[in-house]
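Structure tokens please, single chain.
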Amino acid sequence: MVETRQTIRNLKTVFSKPIYIILTILIALIFYEINVVIANWPTISSFLANSGIIATLKILPTLSYGFEKIITAYSFITLITISILFGMLFSLIVYKTTLNKSITNKKTGILGTIGVFLGLLVPGCATCGIGLASTLGLTTGFLTFFPYKGLEISILAILILGFSIIKTSNNLESCQINLRTSKYNK
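Here you go.
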């Protein structure tokens, strides 16, 4: 219970600073856009070949805005959730790095990397052709092994990212203590 309160307090500390909220939103949007581009790559590459780069850049906002209409509702919800969690984790790691000028805990970094990879692999629905799974030609294979069409991987990615956020937030307290003690020792 004490650890939960500390986690919430640390999250409030980080996200009370507007720069980390902006960073979270920016990273979440970039992650979302990567998924839009991967899912629409045949359309984008065809449009690029026929109409040029300027026209292709003009259709990207339309593809992004209409993306929810071409995927299932649960795929869209999990993609948005993974995007926000990824943005939060990125912001926490940046905050922690600036706090103690060192790289984050390796276990947290590895788990976060796994969560982001799974989120990129199948951020909702393998059969819809979203994520790297479709790019790698793995959509049919996923249908065979996963009864919920890749939703299991998205939920696993959400759980891993959530756990990584909690662990990173918990580790912020030790960084803040180390920072305070180093200031007093000088």
